[in-house]
């Protein structure tokens, strides 16, 4: 069976970049601190936009933000901010760029206090990916009690652009919840992969 014949979630449509993201990344559990930080920043950049817009700019974001190195980002000065505001490769939104810098500083504070950003975030879902069993895309929520709790805790720690809807999209993307539809070929692959690792 070819990739084009596989049953998958309807949201990627026919865009090759979106399909590859769905097939290879979305819903796969991520535990690396810096990868989680980068994904949270990118999901914040998505606010008010579609994810495909950010996905198409993702490489430019990594370049512009020093591969999302929080140590470097936390030290960005006004000159760097001005450079980012003039970078056509990213979404040039003043509040979102400020938030990315602020979030890097908040991330470093969590690292210093708790030593693991990953454990902090995964704690909201009880450490183990939640397997949902949706049959229709309309059944998938845009937020959950866990994403609301994560949003509140992140905001209390100085993060911005981390509302409960952004946090839920983040949780879906990094595999904290498996929101592939049950008839999507990736649903079983991700469940079986996690079971094998467990």
Describe how the helices and strands are arranged:
Elements: H1 16-24, H2 33-45, H3 51-64, H4 70-73, H5 78-85, H6 94-114, H7 117-122, E1 130-131, H8 145-156, H9 164-173, E2 177-178, H10 185-197
Parallel strand pairs: 1-2
Helix pairs in contact: 2-3, 2-6, 2-9, 8-9
Give structural attributes.
single chain, 198 residues, mainly alpha, Endonuclease III, domain 1, two-stranded parallel sheet, 10 helices, 56% helix, 2% strand, globular
Explained architecture:
By secondary structure, this protein is an all-alpha fold. It has a single domain (3-197), classed as Hypothetical protein, domain 2 (Endonuclease III, domain 1, Orthogonal Bundle). Helix content is 56%, strand content 2%. The protein is built from ten helices and two strands; from the N terminus they run αααααααβααβα. The chain has helices spanning 16-24, 33-45, 51-64, 70-73, 78-85, 94-114, 117-122, 145-156, 164-173, 185-197; strands spanning 130-131, 177-178. The chain has a two-stranded parallel ribbon with strand order 1-2. Helix 2 crosses helix 3 (51-64) and helix 2 packs antiparallel against helix 6. The longest helix has 21 residues, at 94-114. The radius of gyration is 17 Å and the shape is globular.
